[in-house]
Specification:
The chain is an alpha/beta fold. The protein has helices at residues 31-42, 57-66, 83-93, 114-127, 169-182, 189-194, 215-227, and strands at residues 3-8, 25-26, 29-30, 47-52, 75-78, 101-106, 129-135, 140-143, 149-153, 159-168, 201-204.
Length: 236
């Protein structure tokens, strides 16, 4: 069995406005609905867990899931103060076996393709852990606190992490529990495994698989949608 945890408990501060970013419309539907639909339509997942702010569970079920029939069987749970805690809450209710794959995904990345989901699941089966990522196309600089360049990083060795990030359930649960025990907070789930010395494989992502965080991102997302520059090239 395969499981997915879609994390959407963030406050969306950088977007501004009164509506949290995950509920803003993208081509007529909430961004989160678009993301949830991509997972449900893939047919790969027996269990989909949606993690949102505790105060928004009823709203999310009504306006994101049921209204659009996005994924009627998804399980909605309350998130925590930080993303890492929200993921942990999702893992805590995940009912697949320890050796089964679970993909963890940002709720505001609506353009994840079916191919990417499939490749991540295959990589988990082979390696135990993986992330979607794209190689850097810009020159990257290591900068000191004073704002001076220390050195240039080798671009061919640098990839920009995306989601989904996939793991065997037992492996990522253990990594989260160890992080909680140590008081460690990472910037993504893969880092929790990295610090324990576990290798994490790379699955080629897509530059269309953007995380919608700012108003500019939302305008870019609308352009991606209108052009059909994601998935199989056909907006649904």
């Amino acid at each position: 069995m395969n499981a997915a945890i879609i994390v959407a408990a963030g406050r969306g501060i950088r977007m501004g406005g009164e509506v949290r970013k995950q509920y803003l419309p993208l081509a007529g539907q909430p961004i989160l609905t678009r993301t949830l639909s991509a997972f449900a339509a893939s047919g790969f997942f027996e269990e989909i867990i949606l993690v949102v702010d505790a105060s928004e569970i009823a709203y999310c079920r009504r306006e994101v899931v049921e209204k659009w029939r996005a994924a009627p069987c998804c399980h909605i749970v309350a998130g925590g103060r930080e993303r890492q805690e929200s993921v942990y809450n999702g893992l805590a209710v995940c009912s697949v076996k320890d050796d089964d794959p679970v993909l963890i995904h940002d709720g505001v990345r609506p353009f994840v393709s079916r191919e990417c989901l499939q490749q991540c699941l295959q990589a988990v089966e082979k390696h135990g852990a993986c992330i979607a990522a794209v190689p850097s196309c810009d020159t990257l600089k290591k900068v000191e606190k004073q704002g001076r360049i220390r050195h240039t990083l080798p671009r061919e060795a640098v990839w920009m992490a995306q989601t989904p990030q996939g793991f065997r359930l037992g492996l990522i649960r253990t990594a989260h529990e160890k992080a909680r025990e140590d008081g460690f907070v990472g910037t993504d789930d893969a880092q929790l495994l990295e610090r324990l010395g576990h290798a994490v494989a790379i699955v080629p992502g897509s530059r269309a698989n953007i995380k919608i965080t700012t108003p500019d991102d939302l305008r870019f997302a609308e352009a991606i949608w209108q052009a059909g520059l994601y998935g199989d090239g056909t907006p649904s």
